Amino acid sequence: MAENGTLECITEHERILQEIESTDTACVGPTLRSIYDDQPNAHKRFMEKLDARIRNHDREIEKMCNFHHQGFVDAITELLKVRADAEKLMGQVTDTNRRLQDAGREVTTQTEEVIRCRIQQRNMTTTVEKLQLCIPVLEMYSKLKEQLESKRYYAALKTMEQLEKVYIPRVSQYRFCQIMAENLPRLREEIKEISMSDLKDFLESIRKHSDKVGETAMRQAQQHRTFHSAVAKQASMGHYTKPVYSLNGRTHTHNGLMMDDDMGEEEEADEEILTAHDLVDFSPVYRCLHIYTVLGDRETFENYYRKQRKKQARLVLQPQANMHETVEGYRRYFNQIVGFFVVEDHILHATRGLVTRAFTDELWNMALSKIIAVLRTHSSYCNDPDLVLELKNLIVIFADTLQDYGFLVNRLFDLLFEVRDQYNETLLKKWALVFREIFELDNYSPIPVETEEEYKVVVSRFPFHDAEVEKQDFPKKLPMSQSVPQIYTQVKEFIYASLKFSESLHRSSTEIDDMLRKSTNLLLTRTLSGCLQNLIKKPHIGLTELVQIIINTTHLEQACRYLEEFITNITNVSPETVHTTRLYGLSTFKDARHAAEGEIYTKLNQKIDEFIQLADYEWGMAESEGRASGYLMDLINFLRSTFQVFTHLPGKVAQTACMSACKHLSTSLMQMLLDTDLKQISMGAIQQFNLDVIQCELFASSEPVPGFQGDTLQLAFIDLRQLLDLFMVWDWSTYLADYGQPTSKYLRVNPATALALLEKMKDTSKKNNIFSQFRKNDRDKQKLIETVVRQLRSLVNGMSS
């Protein structure tokens, strides 16, 4: 076992030595480490083996040296022989090299110069080639800078596009090109910002210039409408010739009927109408649109533009608070709106897709609703018909202008009908004041006419025809007062004023005729009728004035057919046309006349009451005064003079007034007798009262107003007469016997009335000597009175049951 271990150890050492001999020195470390990692004391055996190997190699080296030693000596000997020749050769070579170096130094210098020149030439050629590639880039970039400085942004964007796609890629390896490429996006953003700023300035400018644009457009539309009106009028007159319509709104004809002087004809031909493009610089919009299109951001621009214009539309549509005060306020409002939509129409046709017809229609519909609401509100504040008329003319021109640009304006013409109603209302208010002033200034007396010229003046103002008056000599009086021709003239003026609103409404003659008749009816049935009713009710209007008012309304009623003819002549619409509205003046004046008649009856009764209040009867007098009371004679004289004035009244007005007055007088006298405050009445008072009633009957029989048949007027006092006769004659037996019979002498005496009066006389008989003649007789007389009273009471109770 020990021998085997020794053999293995020796073999392992041999292997390690072979590795050390064959391996690189740097790798010896691991091999040597394995020696120490082996069995203990192995390194000693290895050292022994290593020493043995070294000695073995030394012996081999020594053998080799001994073998080559003679050759080495021989070589050294030969080398020593050659040494002298070598030194000699070295000197010659050194000398030759020196001479050669001296001779080639200049050549070397020239060669280096040539090389340097060749390098420079090559560099120059390369530089020229590169510059030829760079110069177009630099030129384009310089061109870009110039375009930016001159604000030619659209061209600058095209130049940028060429730089990016064509020029810069050729020389992209250079730093300056990289800087250029990095600057181009920034320049694009600057162009966007600048163009957007220009657009904002444009929007602000157009907001300020919309008024001028709209004013120009509306003026042109008005000139256009005036031209067509002139042509239509000329055609209707039969002198129409083919017109030449110039752009500036002036008209010339081939035959020279409508041409200006020859000196100004060429100047007029050269004039051109101003358009929105002439008044507004749209280049910022075009430029900004092109820029955003090139940059691929057109949609953003379109959305921004439309949004801003919507905001401006809302601002334009916002009226001033005091717009309704003057026509200039309305004109500025319309000018701004027209200017706004004229600009939008120009943008619509000058650009492709920036705004669309749908967008402008949407804006217009929104604006139209706002405009109508604003006009409804502000027109309601207008109290001046002239202002309303001017507003209507502005609305018509406004509608015609926008209609020429393709906008639907039917709702505006519908609005004009509402404005027409407002106009009519303001006219009615104005004419109400006119009528009131006429009535206040009227003297309510017939118009005096001194000469035929004065008569013709009156007749020219009012259609008065009366054969009897015409036969009279001058001076003479016309039956109506001065307010009648004034009212008639003012009604015609109202018709003219109402007609002014109907002009240019694009309505047929039939519609205009209908509008005129309806508005005139309103004037007659509401305004004039109201003024007449108020006039009649005024306290200071007396009976004489009321009589004249009735006469006036009669003549105005007769003049209504002339008003219808007047409207027919204006509109050329026959009154026989179907659905033609008739004037309601007849009913208006009839109602006013009836009101005046009723007021006459009322005032007459009031006057009678005033006289009755002056009555001062001594109800306990023993005997009558023998004559009628003074207050009653004054009343009769008043009635007589009043009814003389009534003879001018038409129809049965005077008769009705006279009958009403007599009935009221009779009733008042009856109430005086039956007054509950009156407790006692003497026979003397009855006799005095009888005298007054006799005077009333005499007045009735004197026919104060002609036209009564027989004793019709006297029947107003029949109740009083029968009652007084019953007490004066003391015919109770007849009254009681014939009561209820149609042929009774005292048919109109009511038992309650007779009882009330008899009781007043019964109470008196107890205190004075009214019945002294009966007291001298037996008591049967007194019992007769009591018997009559009982019988009357039984009659009264029988009637009540």
From TrEMBL:
The keyword Metal-binding does not apply. Residues 49-218 form the Exocyst complex component EXOC6/Sec15 N-terminal domain. Gene3D superfamilies: Dsl1p vesicle tethering complex, Tip20p subunit, domain D, Exocyst complex subunit Sec15 C-terminal domain, N-terminal subdomain. The keyword Transport applies. Keywords: Exocytosis, Transport. Residues 412-760 form the Exocyst complex subunit EXOC6/Sec15 C-terminal domain. It comes from the Eukaryota. Belongs to the SEC15 family. Component of the exocyst complex involved in the docking of exocytic vesicles with fusion sites on the plasma membrane. This is Exocyst complex component.
